[in-house]
Specification:
The complex is a heterodimer of chains A (320) and B (361). Chain A is an alpha/beta fold. Chain A has two domains: 173 residues, Thiamin diphosphate (ThDP)-binding fold, Pyr/PP domains (Rossmann fold), CATH 3.40.50.970; 128 residues, Rossmann fold, CATH 3.40.50. Helix content of chain A is 39%, strand content 18%. Chain A has 13 helices and twelve strands. In chain A, the strands form two sheets. Chain A has a seven-stranded mixed β-sheet with strand order 2-1-3-4-6-5-10, sandwiched between helices. A five-stranded mixed β-sheet of chain A has the order 7-9-8-11-12, sandwiched between helices. The longest helix of chain A is centred in the N-terminal third of the chain and has 14 residues. Chain A is globular, with a radius of gyration of 19 Å. Chain B is an alpha/beta fold and 361 residues long. Chain B folds into two domains: 316 residues, 3-Layer(aba) Sandwich (Rossmann fold); 32 residues, no CATH class. Chain B has a six-stranded parallel β-sheet with strand order 1-7-8-4-3-2, sandwiched between helices. Chain B is globular, with a radius of gyration of 22 Å. Chain B starts with 13 loop residues before the first strand and ends with a helix. Classes of the chains: A alpha/beta (320), B alpha/beta (361).
Chain lengths: 320, 361
């Protein structure tokens, strides 16, 4: 997936001279995950800027650049380091268009790794999408395959509003796929139905799509037909696709890696309850990370929901 | 006052004592008369190096997680640790193995932490010290807060905060220094300028001629020292701590050293750093000069060196053995330290975690 992300950067930088990459170690080093490898050599130091070590600065400077007509694509090195940038994201990035009644805007992308599972140190494995989705004015995207990462990153860069782009770390190297470098964007604000089914709807995103699809495969051997939906754009969510599916299957399981309380799954469950309660044949269920701090790596796979938990979640959903 | 008149002038003094060849390039500090202390400074530096080498090897063989080597930083780390009193409180970044050793932290603790086990933060001998701080610069306000607590309670104690060259770009660094200056807090900040913040050299991080001068705007005296010289680091930090302890306010000390290793074991510094620069830095590294100095004074010899290396290797091997034999924590540990008492609503999740953990092969 990381190569697809790199390719999307390169395509759009070649197409649009206003695209500027910035962040810690993105230039000479090509990013700690190599997402921006080779871009500085190809496009020069003015267009690929190594910044001082300050996340608040990166987010804030991107706002100023964007309001000046550039298209900053900024990297936060790990999602656990986003907190100093939240002031800029919440107080300014999400609001600039609204508070100036459209006079100033923020067409920028803020990319960062998302989630755990790669034996990383403390603060390197967080899933904090709910913090961002709670701020109106932002789009939040979390791709689940190399092709979707490529197409959605292109769409994010071309979007007229600020987009937070969450890249599941487990998929950076693990997810391999031939991706055609054709510059074609995928739609923002649409779920992707990864697997069609009739018995239960599984709504998920990011790296958890991989485990959810495996769980669906396992249930298929027992004759259970799971529909797997990759939410993809976490804010604002395409609820139509989710509701259509729930109306069809009558059952809903939501799977995410982030902690359960005030997680995005709660919002999805609430909307489905509001809009499709009478189409449900049983209670909505969630399989999520626990309401704990993301543990250091020896326990990380006890925290991240695995296939057995998802399978049990599917069974519980069907049992009611 | 006339227009154009200078209204303030500042300068940053530099101090060194041991040159890279082990000869003296400045006055010997008074504590140098304590031969056993001199030897101990050297011993702990060697201990840190032997440990560090082993930790990198453990990571390379899949037995440790990502590890940030301290190679080349030993004089700064040990010098600081040795200058502190037990009742002072330490706020590190994540590389200061030598300081932790001096503060009584076990090798096992450091291995556990980088081995993905929170029990590695359980510092039995320095229970008020903070654990390693990974989010860059965020330890600085904690140190200022601890120093404020000492001041409020009228205690003769100090907070010692490390920060790296990259960390001085963070807002939290300036915010903490500003408070320390405004309230004249008993805080000593050691900026470990190892020249590289992952791939970003100091010259790209800031246009400031020194990092020490960043203290000037906060009204804090600052100086630069040779961070590869354990004697001058200990002396400068000790002076600053004693001044702070007696109500003289904060100090910022920039220790000039060099990150001889990759940033962490996940990094490959050859992608961005010239080999010649690293080779040159190896020639001024901290251990050789201290050994040469001790030998020139008749305080050390080859037999002592052999014995020390053997003793360090044995200690490291024993710690590694203990580390590798430490079973992982139960999943309960994810829950049991969240609150003083686990909220009732989390008990079901704790049960779930137990259940799924038991299913694992």
């Amino acid at each position: 997936m990381v190569e697809a992300i790199n390719m999307a950067h390169a395509w759009e930088m070649a197409r649009d001279p206003s695209v500027i990459v910035l962040g810690e170690d993105v230039g000479t080093n090509g990013g700690v995950f190599r997402a921006t490898a080779g871009l500085q050599q190809r496009f020069g130091k003015a267009r690929v800027q190594d910044t001082p070590l300050a996340e608040g600065l990166i987010a804030g400077a991107a706002i100023g650049m964007a309001a000046q007509g550039l298209k900053p694509v900024a990297e936060i090195q790990f999602m656990g380091f986003i907190y100093p940038a939240l002031d800029q994201i919440a107080s300014h990035m999400a609001r600039l268009r609204n508070r100036t009644r459209g006079r100033l805007t923020c067409p920028l992308v803020l990319r960062m790794p998302h989630g755990g599972g790669i034996h990383a140190p403390e603060h390197h494995s967080e899933s904090l999408e709910a913090l961002l989705c709670h701020h109106p004015g932002l789009r939040v995207i979390c791709p689940s395959s190399p092709a979707r990462a490529y197409g959605l990153l292109l769409a994010a860069i071309r979007d007229p509003d600020p987009v937070i782009f969450l890249e599941p770390v487990r998929l950076y190297r693990f997810a391999k796929q031939e991706v055609e470098d054709n510059g074609e964007a995928l739609p923002i604000g649409h779920c992707f139905v990864l697997r069609e089914g009739s018995d239960v709807t599984i709504v998920t995103w990011g790296a958890m799509t991989v485990d959810s699809l495996k769980a669906a495969d396992q249930m298929a051997t027992e004759g259970v037909s799971c529909e797997v939906i990759d939410v993809s754009t976490l804010a604002p969510i395409d609820f139509d696709t989710i509701l259509d599916s729930v109306v069809k299957t009558g059952r809903l399981l939501i799977v995410h890696e982030a902690a359960r309380t005030a997680g995005l799954g709660g919002e999805i469950a609430a909307i489905v309850a509001e809009e499709a309660l009478y189409d449900l044949e049983g209670p909505i269920r969630r399989v999520t990370g626990y309401d704990t701090i993301m543990p250091l790596y020896r326990l990380e796979h006890d925290y991240i929901p695995g296939v057995p938990r998802i399978v049990d979640g599917i069974r519980a959903t069907l049992a009611d | 006052m006339t227009s154009g008149q200078a209204v303030a002038r500042f300068e940053i003094p530099y101090r060194g004592c041991l040159a890279s060849d082990g000869t003296l390039c400045g006055p010997l500090p008074a504590f140098a008369s304590d031969v056993e202390l001199l030897r101990q400074l050297y011993r702990v530096m060697v201990r840190a190096r032997v440990f560090d080498t082993k930790a990198v090897n453990l990571q390379r063989t899949g037995k440790l997680g990502t590890y940030p080597a301290c190679l080349g930083h030993e004089a700064t780390h040990v010098g600081v640790g040795s200058a502190m009193r037990a009742e002072d409180v330490l706020f590190t970044v994540y590389r200061e193995v030598g300081t932790k050793f001096w503060r009584g932290v076990d090798m096992l603790d450091i291995l556990l932490y980088w081995g993905g086990d929170e029990r590695g933060t359980n510092y039995r001998n320095s229970p008020q010290d903070f654990p390693f701080c990974v989010p860059i610069g965020s330890q600085m306000p904690h140190a200022a807060g601890a120093a404020l607590a000492f001041q409020i309670r009228g205690e003769a104690r100090c907070a010692l905060a490390f920060i790296g060259d990259g960390g001085t770009s963070q807002g939290a660094f300036y915010e903490a220094l500003n408070l320390a200056g405004a309230k004249q807090l008993p805080l000593v900040c050691v900026i470990v300028n190892n020249r590289w913040a992952i791939s970003v050299p100091v010259s790209a991080q800031t246009a400031a001629q020194t990092l020490a001068q960043k203290a000037i705007a906060a009204g804090i005296p600052s100086l630069q020292v040779d961070g590869n010289d354990v004697l001058v680091v200990r002396e400068a930090v000790h002076e600053a701590l004693e001044r702070a302890r007696s109500g003289g306010g904060p100090t910022v000390i920039e220790a000039l050293t060099y990150r001889l290793s990759d940033h962490t074991t996940s990094d490959d510094a050859t992608r961005y750093r010239p080999a010649a620069e690293v080779e040159a830095a190896h020639r001024i590294e901290p251990l050789a000069r201290m050994r040469t100095f001790l030998e020139s004074q008749g305080h050390w010899d080859e037999a002592a060196e052999q014995a020390l290396r053997r003793e360090c290797s044995e200690a490291v091997e024993a710690a590694v053995k203990q580390y590798l034999a430490t079973p992982k924590q139960s999943t309960d540990s994810m829950f049991d330290y969240l609150y003083a008492q686990l909220p009732a609503g989390l008990r079901a999740q704790r049960e779930d975690a137990r259940h799924y953990s038991a299913l694992k092969p």
